[in-house]
Design goal:
This protein has one domain. Helix content is 40%, strand content 20%. It is built from eight helices and eight strands, in the order βαβααβββαβααββαα. The strands form three sheets. The chain has a three-stranded antiparallel sheet, with helices on one face. It has a three-stranded antiparallel sheet with strand order 6-8-7. It has a two-stranded antiparallel sheet with strand order 1-5.
Length: 205
Amino acid sequence: MTSYRKITEKIAGKLDLLEAYLFYCLALCSDCYTMDSHIKQENLANFYGVKDTDQIREWLHKFESLGLIRIDKFDVYGQYGKFNRCSYQLDTEHYVFITNKLYDEPISRQLKGFLILLKCKCLNGTNFTQYSQNRLAEELGLSKATVSKYINEAEEKRYVKREKKEIHLLREDIFLKTPESQLVKIKNLYPEIITDEDLERGYIV
């Protein structure tokens, strides 16, 4: 199993911080090649770190309504009869690479979600954005106060660095930079993950 997953940049502006982190958790619980998951909602809730499966179910249906995942239902027959199961196919159009190391970082789910969304707004193949904090708030659909709070916290914990006209993600072991040469290397190792179309059309952000 590879140590990173594709996260579609389409989540930026559509999901809040906790929802973005759940999308990342679902990606980690998906097949690294097909991005298809058969995880039970109870197990996903546990992996995410909550007990409320109703909230997880609500968020999954929101992802589906936004076109971020496809939910397929099927019947499973076991010792005690028939019951329903779901599988989840994640959208990977216009994606970034984020490793599984973020999951174990000793920070809040909200900050993890913010860092995921920030990565989605970085320039192609880089770990920096030239959006101002006010413009970033608009792009992410968050309040200016929320963006300011988590930028400050991320900088204090050394996940980001602010310069005059740029915000940089610092943890390249978590947020992968993907220049074309690196994409070619990844494609050679995992051809099922990177396609020639991805390279030609510049769908890596």
